[in-house]
Task: structure prediction
Amino acid sequence: MDEMQLQTRLALHPWSLETTPLAVLLRVARETGWNAVELRNADFAVAAGAGMGNGEVLALIRESGMPVSVLGVKYGWIFARGEERRRLFADFADTCANAVALGCDMLMSAPGPRAEGTISAAAASLREAGDVARSYGLRLAIEFSCTHNVINSLEKAREMLALAGHPSCGLLLDTYHLERTGAGGRAFAEVPPQEIFAFHFSDCPATPLAPDTARPVDRLVPGRGVVRWREVLGLLIEKGYSGYLSYEGPNPVQWARSPEEVAREAAAAMRTILASLRGESELHPPGAGARRAAHGTEGGA
Result:
């Protein structure tokens, strides 16, 4: 896949428009040029709190005409125990059923709240979740977070993935978390293409993250921070990535603006960056990075 094809694979994440009702989010995404939406278990929960049944939420999404690129599961299952674990895995299965009903084949999960645990314990949970996802014909992308106390780097996420050893499980890479952990630019060059299931994008400010931040909401529109977009996206193209690029840009400043303006601005920013890569794919055709890695000539930043 080249930069022109990625232009047609842009998805809007609802956290970018956090205060916007689901029906409005779907309309805004459609009217401002997004190709799909990424949705969350939380979006179903908010709709349920407003009195909508699960079937009504599914109908609302389908009637919008917007494809669902990825569906996020409820967080916390990785390190949960006892009754909480059973409840979260039941929620996981419910989300799987919703994904199937929406024609979405990809789930995602972040690590969840900080918790006591080890990478080996996380891998065991990931293996179990992978079995559930596979039983529904789905794949699961796991994301690391720069603020988590265990799954807080690309290296840790890959270690967990390797220990789980499940074909239905892969990585969700996020430009913000990559940059915050010193893995920006081409630093994910050694990650095999088959491990990259999903991708989030937003820019990262040059200012350091405030201590004890649990969920960073200082993310920026592409081009307004320090992410090296040509390196990141160029490497994705080299690897032949064919999934969606999902804009997850939570920021209270943006939430206070018109959702139409925020959505239109972000889509235009990413499409401008992708257009600037035109010609790069001719120099580095998809799959070239993987071939160079196999011959020991692929470098990382």
In short: The first helix runs from residue 3 to 6.
